[in-house]
Protein backbone atom coordinates (compact mmCIF):
# COMPACT_ATOMS: atom_id res chain seq x y z
CA UNK A 1 0.00 0.00 0.00
CA UNK A 2 2.88 2.39 0.79
CA UNK A 3 4.45 1.61 -2.59
CA UNK A 4 1.16 2.38 -4.32
CA UNK A 5 0.84 5.70 -2.46
CA UNK A 6 4.40 6.63 -3.39
CA UNK A 7 3.81 5.72 -7.05
CA UNK A 8 0.61 7.77 -7.10
CA UNK A 9 2.41 10.73 -5.52
CA UNK A 10 5.18 10.50 -8.13
CA UNK A 11 2.68 10.22 -10.99
CA UNK A 12 0.84 13.28 -9.68
CA UNK A 13 4.10 15.23 -9.53
CA UNK A 14 5.08 14.16 -13.06
CA UNK A 15 1.70 15.25 -14.41
CA UNK A 16 2.35 18.77 -13.11
CA UNK A 17 6.00 19.09 -14.11
CA UNK A 18 7.41 20.06 -17.48
CA UNK A 19 9.57 17.09 -18.44
CA UNK A 20 12.15 19.19 -20.30
CA UNK A 21 12.81 21.94 -17.76
CA UNK A 22 11.75 20.34 -14.48
CA UNK A 23 9.60 23.34 -13.52
CA UNK A 24 5.80 23.35 -13.21
CA UNK A 25 3.88 22.95 -16.47
CA UNK A 26 0.76 24.65 -17.82
CA UNK A 27 -1.56 22.32 -15.91
CA UNK A 28 0.18 23.20 -12.67
CA UNK A 29 0.12 26.88 -13.65
CA UNK A 30 -3.67 26.85 -13.85
CA UNK A 31 -3.81 25.58 -10.26
CA UNK A 32 -1.26 28.17 -9.10
CA UNK A 33 -3.24 31.01 -10.67
CA UNK A 34 -6.45 29.72 -9.06
CA UNK A 35 -4.69 29.69 -5.67
CA UNK A 36 -3.42 33.25 -6.20
CA UNK A 37 -6.90 34.43 -7.21
CA UNK A 38 -8.39 32.86 -4.10
CA UNK A 39 -5.79 34.60 -1.90
CA UNK A 40 -6.52 37.88 -3.67
CA UNK A 41 -10.22 37.49 -2.90
CA UNK A 42 -9.97 36.26 0.68
CA UNK A 43 -6.89 38.11 1.93
CA UNK A 44 -6.72 41.04 -0.50
CA UNK A 45 -3.23 39.96 -1.60
CA UNK A 46 -2.15 41.45 -4.91
CA UNK A 47 -0.23 39.56 -7.53
CA UNK A 48 1.16 40.17 -10.98
CA UNK A 49 1.66 37.91 -13.96
CA UNK A 50 4.75 38.08 -16.14
CA UNK A 51 4.59 36.38 -19.53
CA UNK A 52 8.11 35.81 -20.84
CA UNK A 53 9.01 34.86 -24.40
CA UNK A 54 12.50 34.05 -25.70
CA UNK A 55 13.31 36.38 -28.58
CA UNK A 56 14.13 34.75 -31.92
CA UNK A 57 14.12 31.26 -30.40
CA UNK A 58 13.37 29.65 -33.76
CA UNK A 59 16.77 30.91 -34.91
CA UNK A 60 18.44 28.96 -32.09
CA UNK A 61 16.83 25.71 -33.23
CA UNK A 62 17.57 26.48 -36.88
CA UNK A 63 21.22 27.42 -36.34
CA UNK A 64 22.28 25.07 -33.53
CA UNK A 65 19.68 22.27 -33.60
CA UNK A 66 16.93 21.19 -31.27
CA UNK A 67 19.25 19.71 -28.64
CA UNK A 68 20.83 23.14 -28.12
CA UNK A 69 17.32 24.62 -28.17
CA UNK A 70 16.32 22.23 -25.38
CA UNK A 71 19.47 23.11 -23.43
CA UNK A 72 18.63 26.79 -23.84
CA UNK A 73 15.12 26.26 -22.46
CA UNK A 74 16.51 24.39 -19.45
CA UNK A 75 19.08 27.16 -18.92
CA UNK A 76 16.44 29.91 -19.04
CA UNK A 77 14.14 27.93 -16.72
CA UNK A 78 17.00 27.58 -14.23
CA UNK A 79 17.73 31.32 -14.39
CA UNK A 80 14.07 32.22 -13.92
CA UNK A 81 13.70 29.73 -11.09
CA UNK A 82 16.69 31.28 -9.32
CA UNK A 83 15.06 34.71 -9.59
CA UNK A 84 11.79 33.58 -8.01
CA UNK A 85 11.80 33.16 -4.27
CA UNK A 86 9.28 32.61 -1.52
CA UNK A 87 5.71 32.77 -2.75
CA UNK A 88 6.62 33.71 -6.33
CA UNK A 89 5.97 30.93 -8.81
CA UNK A 90 7.29 30.01 -12.25
CA UNK A 91 5.93 27.71 -14.92
CA UNK A 92 6.60 26.82 -18.53
CA UNK A 93 3.56 27.88 -20.49
CA UNK A 94 4.61 26.16 -23.68
CA UNK A 95 7.23 26.35 -26.39
CA UNK A 96 9.57 29.17 -25.43
CA UNK A 97 7.11 30.94 -23.11
CA UNK A 98 7.32 31.06 -19.35
CA UNK A 99 5.07 32.65 -16.74
CA UNK A 100 6.00 34.03 -13.36
CA UNK A 101 3.42 34.87 -10.71
CA UNK A 102 4.67 37.53 -8.31
CA UNK A 103 2.81 37.51 -5.01
CA UNK A 104 2.21 40.56 -2.77
CA UNK A 105 3.79 43.05 -5.16
CA UNK A 106 2.89 46.39 -6.66
CA UNK A 107 2.63 46.93 -10.38
CA UNK A 108 5.72 49.20 -10.42
CA UNK A 109 7.78 46.67 -8.48
CA UNK A 110 6.66 43.93 -10.87
CA UNK A 111 7.92 46.04 -13.79
CA UNK A 112 11.27 46.49 -12.01
CA UNK A 113 11.46 42.76 -11.29
CA UNK A 114 10.74 41.99 -14.96
CA UNK A 115 13.39 44.48 -16.07
CA UNK A 116 15.94 42.83 -13.75
CA UNK A 117 15.17 39.43 -15.28
CA UNK A 118 15.43 40.84 -18.79
CA UNK A 119 18.81 42.41 -17.98
CA UNK A 120 20.10 39.29 -16.26
CA UNK A 121 19.31 37.07 -19.25
CA UNK A 122 20.69 39.58 -21.78
CA UNK A 123 24.03 39.79 -19.90
CA UNK A 124 24.61 36.03 -19.81
CA UNK A 125 25.64 33.69 -22.58
CA UNK A 126 25.75 29.99 -23.30
CA UNK A 127 28.89 28.42 -24.70
CA UNK A 128 27.95 25.86 -27.32
CA UNK A 129 30.32 22.96 -27.90
CA UNK A 130 31.71 23.10 -31.41
CA UNK A 131 30.88 26.80 -31.88
CA UNK A 132 33.32 29.64 -31.41
CA UNK A 133 30.78 32.31 -30.55
CA UNK A 134 28.63 31.99 -27.42
CA UNK A 135 24.85 32.10 -27.67
CA UNK A 136 23.29 35.29 -26.33
CA UNK A 137 19.58 35.23 -25.56
CA UNK A 138 17.14 38.01 -24.89
CA UNK A 139 13.55 37.95 -23.71
CA UNK A 140 10.46 40.07 -24.10
CA UNK A 141 8.19 40.34 -21.06
CA UNK A 142 4.58 41.42 -20.60
CA UNK A 143 3.31 42.40 -17.14
CA UNK A 144 -0.26 42.62 -15.79
CA UNK A 145 -1.71 42.94 -12.29
CA UNK A 146 -4.65 40.82 -11.20
CA UNK A 147 -7.90 42.73 -10.79
CA UNK A 148 -10.42 41.37 -8.29
CA UNK A 149 -13.24 39.54 -10.05
CA UNK A 150 -11.49 38.79 -13.31
CA UNK A 151 -10.85 35.30 -14.63
CA UNK A 152 -7.50 33.62 -15.27
CA UNK A 153 -8.07 34.09 -18.98
CA UNK A 154 -8.72 37.82 -18.63
CA UNK A 155 -5.50 38.28 -16.63
CA UNK A 156 -3.53 36.25 -19.15
CA UNK A 157 -4.99 38.18 -22.09
CA UNK A 158 -3.85 41.49 -20.60
CA UNK A 159 -0.36 40.16 -19.84
CA UNK A 160 -0.17 38.58 -23.31
CA UNK A 161 -1.19 41.86 -24.95
CA UNK A 162 1.65 43.59 -23.05
CA UNK A 163 4.01 40.81 -24.20
CA UNK A 164 3.09 41.43 -27.83
CA UNK A 165 3.86 45.12 -27.38
CA UNK A 166 7.25 44.12 -25.92
CA UNK A 167 7.91 41.67 -28.76
CA UNK A 168 7.41 44.49 -31.27
CA UNK A 169 10.75 45.87 -30.03
CA UNK A 170 12.33 42.67 -28.60
CA UNK A 171 14.49 42.54 -25.48
CA UNK A 172 12.10 44.80 -23.62
CA UNK A 173 9.45 44.86 -20.89
CA UNK A 174 5.96 46.27 -21.32
CA UNK A 175 3.29 46.57 -18.69
CA UNK A 176 -0.40 46.66 -19.34
CA UNK A 177 -0.48 50.39 -18.50
CA UNK A 178 2.25 51.16 -21.05
CA UNK A 179 0.21 50.19 -24.10
How is the biggest beta sheet arranged? Answer: 5 strands, mixed
| Helix/strand/pairing category | alpha+beta
- What is the CATH superfamily label? Reverse transcriptase/Diguanylate cyclase domain
What's the number of structural domains?
A: 1
Which geometry do the CA atoms define?
A: globular
Which residue ranges are poorly predicted, with pLDDT under 50 across at least 5 consecutive positions?
Answer: none
- Quickly name the level 1 CATH class: Alpha Beta
Walk me through what this model shows:
The termini are far apart. The longest helix is centred in the N-terminal third of the chain and has 18 residues, at 26-43. β4 and β5 (135-136) form a beta hairpin. 51% of the residues lie in helices and 20% in strands. It contains 6 helices and 7 strands; from the N terminus they run ααβααββαβββαβ. It has a single domain (2-178), classed as Reverse transcriptase/Diguanylate cyclase domain (Alpha-Beta Plaits, 2-Layer Sandwich), CATH 3.30.70. Strands 2-3-1-6-7 form a 5-stranded mixed β-sheet, with helices on both faces. A two-stranded antiparallel sheet has the order 4-5. The mean pLDDT is 91. The chain is an alpha+beta fold and 179 residues long.
